[in-house]
Design a protein that fits this description.
The protein is built from 8 helices and 8 strands. It has 291 residues and is α/β, with parallel strands linked by helices. It has one domain: 3-Layer(aba) Sandwich (Rossmann fold). An 8-stranded mixed sheet has the order 1-2-4-3-5-6-7-8, sandwiched between helices. The chain is globular. The N and C termini lie far apart (37 Å).
Amino acid sequence: MPDVSPQMREYLSGMKNQSTQKSKFDRSVAEERADLDAFMSQLPIPERVVFEDLSLGGRPAKKVLPNDSATDRAVLFFHGGGYRVGSLDGYKSFMAYLALSCGVAVYGLDYRLSPEHTFPAALDDAVFAFVELSQSVVPENIMLVGDSAGGGLALASLLRLKEKGQALGGAAALLSAWLDGTASGDSYGERRAEFSTGMRGYAGDFPLDTVGVSPLFGDHEGLPPLLLQVVNTEPMRDDSTQLQQRASAAGVDSRIDVFANGFHDFQIFTDIPEARRAINAIGTFFGEVMA
């Protein structure tokens, strides 16, 4: 396994050895939330940022502000977790490094989670948050970022804004994004039923191919530049590769980085050098398209 950091090797080895690990959808919601937050709370947080609690779109939010940051641009971030786990406290490390990489404030949104709140609750929260942030930062100067389910939420938000004729963000970065609730891609393989069942918990009474649930199937024409990051062996790989093809065919500046020797959503584990490099790539993309 050449050119792989010891930290990444350790993560990959740990995952391989956990042959008895339960599927994420076999555990209770409370267990998933507690386990993820407990693990992610151990990740490093750089000293050059300030955290501020606030509200966006009627939901709790967190602003991460780096020293000497630009004030005319911003990032709106939606965390991952299958639409049912994840928290801003757990994502403090990732948001901090993302803020430093982009050189602007990152606003993280505590959107409503399932099963307590099914679709379109999370999407409504995300769109309302973007609209409110747009009152203080020009919409075209806001980049949407999301990992896993949060990546799907970011893309779904752009499509909802477009549908309503509202201003869109200036760019989006989607990390290992969950874009297809039907799990139609070949990369899902034997886990297709697992993921479609998981998305059913969020979709509620809506069909799994509803664009707000599965934004892969939306009309991508007119969307801002997209950066997609995905691992070549992860189940959701084809969500990103298919989006890149569809968006490019629709005339969208759509870029994709396919990583080897990684795992789904590795970017949020900031103690891995490869994750930090991936975050820096997001910052480079931000500087190029939001200049």
